[in-house]
């Protein structure tokens, strides 16, 4: 929506990054009328098994054969060329709006964005950066560990680890605009100015910390579990590895909302964790 706060945040990013000399490409999914549903129509020509259609398998082969629909191919080309992807959106039901989730389902297809051999820090997009920039309807206190919505780090885990990090992206800390709809004009202006300031050094920021693949037995026989010697080594650490890999311990503070500092790593042991695009 042109008059929305999300549009204003997008425009700030567009202006500031262009001033820094970056080429910025915007995919306005609503204006594009981007199709959210992952269906048989995403494949041009025949499918391999029409009686038991499996979207992931069919799009994998269609992608290898150049038979994905034109809108998917166009977006995948933008991803391939991007150095950083910023997802700008309002938080809906603790997640993405449907059209953005549809973009993820259709564009980040198997073979293009991930494979069993290439995932997480070994992922296809390990040389690219991505981040979430979003608005909430809730105040920040509502997303504290003792707030009614629960810890925002837990909310962000499936989005940042399960999607972005899974595809290999270096995930920058999210830009969260807390409850702009319920904030006075001066507060909204300050939010945008803070975003503009952050953008000046955005690409130099360290990414969030996730558990490294090398800590796990990456085989079906080993169940993709933490290796026993790693688990033993981590047993004496006071915190879990990450928000998701908590190991039954307290979560590392702000694991999904800010990059770890040297002090954080010392506190939990060093081995505990080891062109621009806007959607």
UniProtKB/TrEMBL annotation:
Main location: cytoplasm
Enzyme superclass (EC): oxidoreductase
Domain Flavodoxin-like fold: 4-199
Enzyme Commission code(s) on record: 1.10.5.1
One cellular-component annotation, GO: cytosol
Molecular function, one GO term: metal ion binding
Cofactor(s) listed in the protein's UniProt record: Zn(2+); FAD
InterPro entries hit by this protein: Flavodoxin_fold (IPR003680), Flavoprotein-like_sf (IPR029039), NAD(P)H_dehydrogenase_qn (IPR051545)
Keywords assigned: Cytoplasm, FAD, Flavoprotein, Metal-binding, Oxidoreductase, Phosphoprotein, Zinc
UniProt catalytic activity: 1-(beta-D-ribofuranosyl)-1,4-dihydronicotinamide + a quinone + H(+) = beta-nicotinamide D-riboside + a quinol
Keyword Glycoprotein: no
Subcellular localization: Cytoplasm
Coiled coil region boundaries: none
Location of the region described as Disordered in the Swiss-Prot/TrEMBL record: 241-279
Similarity annotation: Belongs to the NAD(P)H dehydrogenase (quinone) family.
Assembly and interaction partners: Homodimer.
Role noted for this protein: The enzyme apparently serves as a quinone reductase in connection with conjugation reactions of hydroquinones involved in detoxification pathways as well as in biosynthetic processes such as the vitamin K-dependent gamma-carboxylation of glutamate residues in prothrombin synthesis.
Protein name per UniProt: Ribosyldihydronicotinamide dehydrogenase [quinone]
Organism ancestry: Eukaryota, Metazoa, Chordata, Craniata, Vertebrata
